[in-house]
Amino acid sequence: MFRFATLIIFLVASVTATFTQAQFDPLGGLRQRLEDQRRRMEQSMREMEERRKDMEASLRGASGTPFGGSAMPADAMPAQAADDSDGLRLTPGEITYSNGESILVRDEEGEEIVCRLHVSIGDTHVVMLPDGRLKSFPIEETRATEKPFVPMDMDSIEAKLLKDPKLAGFKTIRSRRFLYLYNSSELFIRSSRTILESMYPAVRKYFERSGIDVHEPELPLVVIAFATDDQFQEYRRMPKGVVAYYDAETNAAFIYERSDLSDHAPEIAVKNAISTIAHEGAHQILHNIGVQQRLSRWPLWLSEGLAEFYAPTSVQKGIRWSGLGSANQLRMMEISRDWEANQPRGTGKTIQRITSSDELDSLDYAYAWGLIHMLSRRHQKELFACVLDCSRLRPLEGIEQISDQVASPSEVFTKHFGEDYPDIEQEMTKHLMGLNYVDPIKNQTHYLVIYGGTVALTSSPEAVKEMQRRSGGRSQVRTFPNRLMAEKAMAAISR
Ligand SMILES: [Zn+2]
To answer: What pLDDT, in 10s, does the model give residues 144-175?
Structure first.
């Protein structure tokens, strides 16, 4: 039997890595450090992809036969489930889909519990436990039952999660639909709560208009927020560079607050973290209101583009959700940097690449956002038809080597939007150029540090402190709301 959870997690859990651009820092070092950080992230994303390919290769190698435990080296499994008893153990075989039947299984304590059948593959039932987790059981260890499946309420789920030693001491807060377990700051978790709860009705309404039969989530939507990367990693090992993910197996969203950027570009770091929770929250909402079936695989350009479409947040005048379809300034920044380096020519190559790809880098995420934004404004009927089509993808459908052939990501695209890639790309470029864009890097707080005969410009409070320390407290610091004003003042001083 093959420990399959890892592969499933990588295929369906959506992972967001941030690649924030560096800004020039007269002290030097910051840019280099951010560049290094970005390279490390890209490296680990590549490693993750290679591991995924290895796993798929070992699957192919043993097609039709159950796998020996040695089919995959232990160190090729980067994402062990939090609890070893968790996880999906699947042996490839015939897939049968569920009609929502109730199934009796024994839980970790040996108690019989009523679950709901999610999908069956080979000799295995994948069931949804009353707490919303998906778990696999050999069919012979299960029994059909007439008893109804009863999802757990928020109180019981909270009590159950708090028993996890890795979450010991975590605080909880709630909103109507979300349950947050956290040891992050109060500001961070309260901002997340405001954003997700204001986002939810808008996202739901948007998909109601697509013709999908959407419903309220059956279970509380759990968000687990760690204060630091280390704690996030200790809970479940993820490739370096992953800052948050929605896990389709446990149905929870995981995130951490602190990043290396916090000290050097705090406004961008907050914006990034808050947009990330909105992004993962979008995946989570879509998986819980009947839009995307858990363990189904959608084309990445669509699922990631949609999540980015809902992600824009604002940190000016308090942290809040920017509203459906507002310009995603962080993604616009990446696109405009790309346009500065490579004139947009509308060859269609960018659209063709991202709509056919099974892996997206940071710039691809940006263009996936741009594409969805344009389609949502200019081709909404076709976009809704495309989403409706994908909402019919069932569990394990669309996953290579496990299920039957389904339409490739580019086939899904061309079916609804045609094959005139240059035309679509030109339309997207024109559309994006018409959006109101405020460069978030240039519009963060900037400081001038004046000491002796020198003036230094930086956006990093950490750098300011360092310069103050070096000057023995004899420097003067002036604060500006954006880079342009700081530069003007700097020019005036230097004159
Ligand atoms: Zn995502």
So the answer is: 999 999 999 999 999 999 999 999 999 999 99
Determine the distance separating the centroid of ligand 1 and the alpha carbon of 104, expressed in angstroms.
33
Separation of CA 276 and ligand 1 centre (Å): 9
Cβ atoms of 440 and 271 closer than 8 Å: yes
Question: In angstroms, what is the span from residue 214 Cα to ligand 1's centroid?
Answer: 20
Contacts of 105 (CB under 8 A, 6+ apart): 112, 113, 115, 127, 135, 137, 141, 142
Beta bridge partners of 127: 117, 135
Query: Is the pLDDT at 436 greater than 50, yes or no?
Result: yes
CA 278 / ligand 1 centre spacing (Å): 10
In 3D space, the residue among 168, 158, 172 whose CA is nearest the CA of residue 220 turns out to be 158
**Residue spans of alpha helices (H) in 85-126:** none
pLDDT at position 309 is: 92
3-state secondary structure of 96: strand
- Mutual orientation of helices 362-378 and 349-356 as an angle, nearest 10°? 100
Distance of CA 267 from the midpoint of ligand 1 (Å): 22
Taking 90 as the threshold, does the pLDDT of residue 381 lie above it?
yes
CA–CA gap between residue 35 and residue 71 (Å, rounded): 37
The rounded Å distance from CA 300 to ligand 1 centre is 8
Q: How far is the C-alpha of 119 from the C-alpha of 126, rounded, in Å?
A: 5
CATH number given to 5-57+154-433: 3.40.30.160
Instruction: Name the residues around ion ligand 1, CB cutoff 5 A.
Output: 14, 304, 307
Q: What's this model's pTM, rounded to 2 decimal places?
A: 0.77
Check pLDDT > 60 for residue 52.
no
Residue 98 Cα, ligand 1 centroid: separation in angstroms?
Answer: 26
Task: Give me ligand 1 centre to Cα 10, in Å.
Answer: 12
Instruction: Give CA 395 to chain center in angstroms.
Output: 20
Q: By three-state DSSP, how is residue 171 classified?
A: strand
How much distance in Å is there from the Cα of 396 to the middle of ligand 1? Answer: 18
- Going from the Cα of 66 to the center of ligand 1, the distance in angstroms, rounded, reads 32
CA–CA separation, 144 and 62 (whole Å): 31
Structure tokens at 399: 């996953």
What does the radius of gyration of the chain's CA atoms come to, in whole angstroms?
A: 24
Each residue of 281-294: pLDDT tens digit? 999 999 999 999 99
Dist. CA 35 → ligand 1 center (Å) = 23
Provide the residue ranges of all domains of the chain, joining segments of one domain with +: 5-57+154-433, 79-144, 446-494
| Topology of domain 79-144, CATH | SH3 type barrels. (2.30.30)
